[in-house]
Design brief:
single chain, alpha+beta, Alpha-Beta Plaits, Chromosomal Replication Initiator Protein Dnaa, Chain: A, five-stranded mixed β-sheet, 5 strands
Length: 336
C-alpha cells in the first residue's frame, strides 16, 4: 500500500516524531542533544516556525510545531540532514541514522493541544530518565522547564501554551503545573502518537467520527477542513479567461478583497495598499492581485489603482499570489 503524502499546510499544529534505525541511538550523550538544539534554534527563526513543546530521548524525539509562513518540510529536511551528517562524523559511522521519513500528525488546537504538551513533556518520567516528577522541572532535554520558568529558551513558544490555561499569569502557570502533574500516572498514551478513528474515540473527541484520517488527530469538522484545503491545492490552475466566462463567478470588489486578505494575514488594509517592501506586505499584495484580477476578473487598471502599483506588474504579482493561496490555509479559508 503506497504511503500517503504528509499534510503540510501553514498554520497547522504538527506533532513530529523522528526515530533512529533499530539498534541505534540518536543521542549518544548530552553533547549530541545540545548540538541538535543549536541546529534547531536558527532554523525555527529562519522558517518562522513556532515550537510549543519538545523532548529529546536517546533513540527518538518529539516536536510540537506550528509553521506560520513556510511548510514544515522547509524546517525538517535541513534539520535532519545537518544533524545526521554531524552525528556520523562525530561518532565515526556511516549510513542512515533515521528510521524512514519523519512522521507528522496534523492536530486540532482546540481539542488536543494541552494533551500533546503534557504527553511530550512527561516522556522523560515515563522512560525513566528522571526518577520523580519534581526532577522534571530541571530536566534540560524537554520544554517543561521553559514553561514553568526554571530555564529560558527564547525559541520556545511558551506564551501560546500558557494562554490555554487562563488569562492571569500566576493562575495559568499553576493550572499548567497541576494539569501536567495529574497526567504523571497515566502511562504511555499511544492515542496521542498518531491519528485516525480509533485514537479519536480513545481521546473522547467524538464517539462516532464521521470523517477520519490517519494523518490527523481531531474532530470530523477539522478533518473536513483539511480535506477541502488539500482539494484546493490539487485543483488545476484556472485562468482569468475561464473565470471571466464562467457561470458561477463570484463578484467581490477590489477594496473588499484588500480588507479580507489584510485581516487574514494580520495586517491593516492601509499596510496592504502601501508600498512597503516588507515580505508579509508583498505577499499580501500578490494575493490581492490574484484574487481580484484572476478569480474575480476585475480590470488590471482597477487593481493597480487600488494598490498603487504599475498596471504592467499585475500579471506577475497574480502568478505569485496563486502559489501563495494554494499553500496558505488562512487565505484558503476565506472561500474565494
Amino acid at each position: 500500500m503506497p504511503t500517503l503524502a504528509r499534510i503540510d499546510q501553514v498554520e497547522l499544529l504538527q506533532h513530529v516524531i523522528v526515530k533512529a534505525v533499530p539498534g541505534q541511538r540518536l543521542f549518544e550523550d548530552d553533547n549530541d542533544r545540545d548540538i541538535f538544539l543549536r541546529i534547531l534554534e536558527p532554523l525555527l527563526a529562519q522558517t518562522e516556525t513556532q515550537c510549543l513543546a519538545w523532548v529529546l530521548l536517546p533513540d527518538h524525539f518529539h516536536l510540537l510545531l506550528r509553521p506560520t509562513r513556510q511548510r514544515l518540510t522547509t524546517l525538517m529536511l535541513p534539520l535532519l540532514v545537518a544533524y545526521a551528517r554531524g552525528f556520523n562524523k562525530r561518532h565515526g559511522r556511516r549510513g542512515r541514522l533515521f528510521r524512514g521519513r519523519y512522521k507528522s500528525v496534523a492536530c486540532e488546537d482546540e481539542t488536543v493541544l494541552k494533551e500533546l504538551v503534557r504527553y511530550l513533556h512527561l516522556h522523560p518520567l515515563r522512560s525513566g530518565e528522571v526518577a520523580r516528577y519534581k526532577d522534571l522541572e530541571n530536566h534540560p532535554w524537554c520544554g517543561h522547564g521553559a514553561i514553568i520558568g526554571s530555564s529560558v529558551l527564547r525559541w520556545q513558544s511558551v506564551g501560546e501554551v500558557l494562554e490555554t490555561f487562563g488569562r492571569k499569569k500566576v493562575s495559568r502557570l499553576l493550572a499548567y503545573r497541576r494539569f501536567v502533574k495529574a497526567g504523571a500516572g497515566q502511562g504511555e498514551r499511544r492515542e496521542l502518537a498518531g491519528g485516525g478513528k480509533r485514537r479519536v474515540r480513545r481521546l473522547g473527541l467524538e464517539a462516532h467520527p464521521a470523517r477520519c484520517d490517519g494523518r490527523t488527530l481531531g474532530t470530523s469538522a477539522f478533518v473536513r477542513g483539511i480535506e477541502e484545503a488539500e482539494e484546493w491545492q490539487r485543483a488545476p490552475v484556472r485562468g482569468r479567461a475561464e473565470n471571466l466566462f464562467g457561470e458561477s463567478r463570484a463578484v467581490v470588489s477590489v477594496s473588499e478583497v484588500v480588507e479580507k486578505v489584510a485581516a487574514a494575514v494580520g495586517l491593516s488594509p492601509e499596510q496592504v495598499r502601501g508600498r512597503s517592501r516588507l515580505p508579509e506586505v508583498r505577499r499580501a499584495r500578490s494575493a490581492v492581485c490574484y484574487v481580484a484580477y484572476v478569480r474575480n476578473c476585475h480590470p488590471g487598471k482597477a487593481v493597480a489603482a487600488e494598490l498603487g502599483m504599475a498596471h504592467s506588474t499585475i500579471c506577475a504579482a497574480a502568478l505569485a499570489g496563486e502559489s501563495l493561496l494554494r499553500n496558505d490555509l488562512r487565505l484558503y479559508r476565506l472561500r474565494w
